[in-house]
Each structure stands twice: as C-alpha cells, then as structure tokens.
Amino acid sequence: MNAELARIHPDAHCELDFRTPLELTVATILSAQTTDKMVNSVTPTLFARYPTAADYAGADPAEMEALLTPTGFFRAKTRSVIGLGQALVERYGGEVPAKLADLVTLPGIGRKTANVVLGNAFGIPGITADTHFQRLVRRWAWTAETDPVKIEHAVGPLIPRMEWTILSHRVIFHGRRVCHARKPACGACALATWCPSYGDGPVDRDVAAKLIKGPDSAARARAAALGLPVRTPDELVELAMEQSA
C-alpha cells in the first residue's frame, strides 16, 4: 500500500507555504481548525510583517489578531505565536530548535506540529498523525489505536524510517482526494485490492469517480470511468492526450 501511495501521489508534499523553519512553525500553528489554503492566503503578509522571532515576540496583539482573523481562533493563535517568539528569543537565540523534546516545550506546539517542522524544515523523519492520517491508517487496519501518539508509534515500525515524512504527505493527500471520511471513492481507489474497508464508499466506478477531489480530479475521474485506478499526474497527461487524439 505504501508503494502504491508513492506511485499515485508522487507530488505529495507539505501544502503550507514557507521558506524557513520559523515560517513553517508559525504556519503549522495557524493551520489548526482551518485549511492550508486559508493559512497560505494570510502568511505572506504575516511573514513580511514579522520576519524574525524577535518581531513576533514584540508584536502588538491587536495588530496580529487582525491579520489572523480569517484563520479562526485568532486570539488563541495570536497568543501562541507571540509566546512562540518570546520563547525562541529567550531560550534558543531566536532560532527554531531541531529537536522534538525542545519543540514540544514551545507555545502552540504539540507532537504533531513538531513532526511537521522536523520533517519538512530540517529533514528529520517524523510521522504527522493529523486527522486524515489517523482516519486512514485505522480504515486500512494498520492499527486500531485512537491516540495520535500511539498511532505514530504503531505505524512507524511498518515503514522505513526515512519514509515517515513523505508517507505522512501521501496519506494526507489520499485522504483529501480519494479516501474521504463520510464517502470514500472506493470504486476509483488504487488501494482497493488491499483495503479491508473496501465498500465503505460506493464501489461503482462512475459514482466513485465523481467523489475524487483535487486539482486533477477531472482527469482522475475520466481514468476511473475507463476502469482504471487513480493515476499518477504523468499518466493522467498521457491519458488526456490519448483521449484528445
């Protein structure tokens, strides 16, 4: 299943826009209870206004709240981001630490956020057990655990450590595009052969194809309608060219 996820989601990546560990840390804090797209719409202005940890530490709460309002829970997020800046300045010379034990002591950062930062900003493998990841690995019977930390520890030994970060992205991509919570696109899923939950969603190819989401959802739906599983981006281009010939 991991190999198939790699094949069908070669474009899997962190969908939060960032250039530095600090930017990713702040963006991940802001991503709670909102979409990556929403965070990405706010962070260009935020990052330009507060380029360093010291800038966050000395920020005016009202001004920051105004910037963060679209992300929801903006007061709590403002407190976390300002607190993060203060803690980084006081304890780490204004730099984001590259150790899990240090990261989880900072305001607004739990184990999930820490693994996002470690994996994507520092290249240190980590499993991001977000809601999509938790849902899918249980649906696939990789684990029956419900606690995010226990899920992380249960899934880790199943996959080579160096793949933990990219595995997280692949699973999240699949959860957002194909294996939806209420109605997974079972009939158009490339993992159907191995999935113990096949049939939780519609198995009819045409019905399932219409449930696929994402930037290439139309092409994936056409592939599914032809009796093919979810395709890779390159294969979708080739399919489109064949159909138009």
Notes on the structure:
This protein is mainly α and 245 residues long. The chain has 3 domains: 2-12 and 127-177, Endonuclease Iii, domain 2; 21-121, Hypothetical protein, domain 2 (Endonuclease III, domain 1); 186-244, no CATH class. The protein is built from 14 helices and no strands. It has helices at 2-8, 21-30, 36-49, 53-57, 61-68, 74-92, 100-103, 111-121, 131-139, 148-155, 164-177, 205-209, 217-225, 233-244. Helix 2 packs antiparallel against helix 8, helix 5 (61-68) crosses helix 6 (74-92) and helix 9 packs across helix 11 (164-177).
Topology:
Layout: H1 2-8, H2 21-30, H3 36-49, H4 53-57, H5 61-68, H6 74-92, H7 100-103, H8 111-121, H9 131-139, H10 148-155, H11 164-177, H12 205-209, H13 217-225, H14 233-244
Helix pairs in contact: 2-8, 5-6, 9-11
Short description:
The chain has 245 residues and is mainly α. The chain has helices at 2-8, 21-30, 36-49, 53-57, 61-68, 74-92, 100-103, 111-121, 131-139, 148-155, 164-177, 205-209, 217-225, 233-244.
Instruction: Characterize the overall form.
Output: globular
SSE run: HHHHHHHHHHHHHH
- Total domain count: 3
By CATH's scheme, which homologous superfamily of the largest domain applies? Hypothetical protein, domain 2
CATH-defined fold name of the largest domain? Endonuclease III, domain 1
Specify the CATH architecture of the largest domain: Orthogonal Bundle
Percent of residues in helices comes to: 55-70%
The count of strands amounts to 0
Structural class: mainly alpha
Ranges with pLDDT <50 over ≥5 residues? none
The main β sheet shows up as: none
